[in-house]
Amino acid sequence: MNSAALVKTVKLPMVEIFQTVEGEGTAAGYPTVFVRLFGCPLRCAWCDTPYSYPPAEAEFTMTIGEICERVASFRAARVCVTGGEPLLYGERSGALLRAIAEMDQIVDVHVETSGAIAIAPFLTMVSSSKVRYIVDYKLPGSGEEARMDLANVTDLRSVDELKFVIASRVDYERACAVIAQYRPLGTILFSPVWGSVAPDQLVTWMLEDGLANVKLSLQIHKVIWDPQLRGV
To answer: How far apart are the first and last CA of the chain?
Structure first.
């Protein structure tokens, strides 16, 4: 089935689409439309979106065209495609990314992916320079590090991001080891697990170890709103 047919007929399971400000990463603070797909192969211990995978169910389904129409109804110029795991649906996921990137109002499409699905096929099937990937490498505290596709770390480009969500000193040291071993391109982000590692403690570790090319990333949406609030 070609991309035009996918846009018109094939549906994706959805959780929500909403406009807010991006809460983390290099686009933090920008007005952004969040397109959250349903489904994820991982079960991270600290996951803050358990409503995006079974035993929960998809809130609704939409065609790619319908998703783009909803995105166009907002005024933001940036889109975060997230989940769950937004790359779970292969060619359908790729067609969605292509369609959003083709929208004139959109200047950036960042894809929050779990690290368990190879990004290489998407780098081939999605050619737009607007589309970039944020790989969330799962550390020991998540319980899912064994599921990481390590090729993702070296496949990242300079426009992409590699995020480490850190719940303990063990997680921090493992993140440092991954960086030292693979020397990834792109922006490297260290983000403390909300309520597990204090941001000032993480900053102290980073400064003590001279991590000059690692950026602290805080979830500002959890500062602005109640951490349990959806749709923000």
So the answer is: 35
CA 49, 45, 79, 6 dihedral sign is: negative
What length is written for the chain?
232
Mean pLDDT of 83-93: 95
Contact 198, 171 (CB under 8 A): no
Show me where the domains of the chain are located. Answer: 3-224
81 within 8 A of 87, measured Cβ to Cβ: no
Amino acid identity at 149:
D
Please state which architecture CATH assigns to domain 3-224. Alpha-Beta Barrel (3.20)
Interval 102-120: pLDDT, tens: 999 999 999 999 999 999 9
Say if residue 56 is exposed, middle or buried (CB neighbours under 10 Å; 0-12, 13-18, 19+).
middle
User: What pLDDT band is residue 23 in, cutting at 50, 70 and 90?
Assistant: confident
Q: How confident is the model at residue 232 (pLDDT cuts 50, 70, 90)?
A: low
Residue type, 162: L
**What single string gives the DSSP state of each residue in 89-102?**
TTHHHHHHHHHHHT
Query: Rounded distance, CA 190 to CA 204, Å?
Result: 12
For residue 50, give the H/E element and its range. none
Nearest Cα neighbor of 81 from 145, 15, 28, 128 is 15
* DSSP structure class, residue 39: -
